[in-house]
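Justification of computing resources. Each target in the renewal requires a structure prediction run like the one illustrated here; the chain below, 343 residues long, is used simply to show the kind of job we budget for.
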Amino acid sequence: MIQIQPKQSQKTARKIMVSAVQPSNRLTLGNYLGALKNWVQLQSQFDCLFFAVDLHTITVRQDPKELREQTYRAIATYIAAGLDPNEVTLFAQSHVPQHAELAWVLNCFVYMGELNRMTQYKDKSAKQGQNIPVGLFTYPALMAADILLYQTHLVPVGEDQKQHLEITRDIAQRMNQVYGDELFTIPEVYTPPVGARIMSLQDPTSKMSKSDPDPSSAVYLNDSDDQIRKKLKRAVTDSGTEISYSPEKPGIKNLIDIQSAITGQSTQTIVDSYVGKQYGHLKVDTAEIVAAAVGPIRDRTEEVLKDQAFLNSVLKRGAEKAGARAEQTLKTVFDRMGFIPRG
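Resulting structure tokens:
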């Protein structure tokens, strides 16, 4: 059984940070470079809670077996990427019922007009046809609960999620005005010193997505080295032959961004190294760099997944820690609103 020894360290009060990923599919290189890699660097700086938001995934129909497997895989990947279960709180969203409880309360304090303006609702509902699940509409209330339950100070979010944090702040401020200024901490956006927005390999004008129906558009964190090489070899590039870092060349720019995010080299340094070289050189080199970064995470993830007892212990301990904190917030909310104590 895998064992991680607790660290003997004296913790001081740190700002609380919360972030999560949907386990609706296998995690991608974009998830790693845009989120997990930063989480690992932040775990010693902040009081971090990282989880798999499995409740969010069911706004779209999920295969039960696959959802269960992908949720385990997400947590295993968090650990494989370098998150320490003794340093951060790792759990599955559905294991902490206070998320759903607070979400209902917040539903009563968010307005239909606000939800109607949410870009993700507009985009996702357009794909649903006529039968749009209510959960897709009220999704931001559950996301707000994920954040406000833990009196979160900082939330690392990309551009596509900033609107959700804005509505979370609006709800928190609205309830603070009614029930007391200290009911909820008002969360702030955290922008990592080094951010990475990785784009699709087949459509470099769109963000790399684990839900993209075209598997060649994304490098998954459990892809083999050969699969990675094939995907990068087939990556869409641009007209011309010069390797330059420019919005006019989104395919080339994406490959340079991937190299930069993994190696830490500046984009200009990378561009300078390809003077006189062809697109093929950039693709081959990027593939090898990606394979070298993904390989250890892939292998470690499979190792963790084989130890079900260890994974379950991590999830149980994380849910207990998160649940205790969440219950404190929920108890205060219920008390301020006038609900009878549970006893």
